[in-house]
Amino acid sequence: xxxxxxxxxxxxxxxxxxxxxxxxxxxxxxxxxxxxxxxxxxxxxxxxxxxxxxxxxxxxxxxxxxxxxxxxxxxxxxxxxxxxxxxxxxxxxxxxxxxxxxxxxxxxxxxxxxxxxxxxxxxxxxxxxxxxxxxxxxxxxxxxxxxxxxxxxxxxxxxxxxxxxxxxxxxxxxxxxxxxxxxxxxxxxxxxxxxxxxxxxxxxxxxxxxxxxxxxxxxxxxxxxxxxxxxxxxxxxxxxxxxxxxxxxxxxxxxxxxxxxxxxxxxx
Length: 268
Known about the structure:
This protein is of the alpha/beta class.
């Protein structure tokens, strides 16, 4: 039986965070090419997710979509956020097709329902069937219907957490624009140290020290939320999770092949 991997390519890797609605098409092609190269060398199944970067985070923040249906503009904001997320996904999928990669997109709003921002119900059977049919499913952070709040933001990590419960990946990879989790903000502290392993012995300390705020617009909670979601995935499914730098050429390929050095391992 083939191993199943989940790989998220962060919005900081594939979009220009300083320019609204600007995709880094060359970086998207590079990331996809490295996935293709890794699959040519190693036989595994994979589900790809990607972040929203300078696309969906903007209307989500402007209309405060994470808070739910709170005023007369909330529904408009939710739909605009959905469209922005889909716009980047369309670019990503088109680049994959041009590279000869057989992908099939899945919007989380089409298969999942949330309760207090946590995906709690949905159908993943068609994603499983898509894998069996030889496609690579591609998903992303999205607006979803929420039973309590009306609408909510489901980050790619939250989507992975939901899918992992039924699909049981052996490894989950998160490609960001930093080498992993640091004990301090590396942008503000020159002595920041890369944390090699996050496990039951230090998870609480890491969550406290990892800043959820950022100068970037990020409605999904920053690195703190990422670590928490990955830890939950590992605790609930036994998967081994990794946070690594996806902006460096070759790193995605090396990570998938088990050849990369310098990352954070997250394992409950």
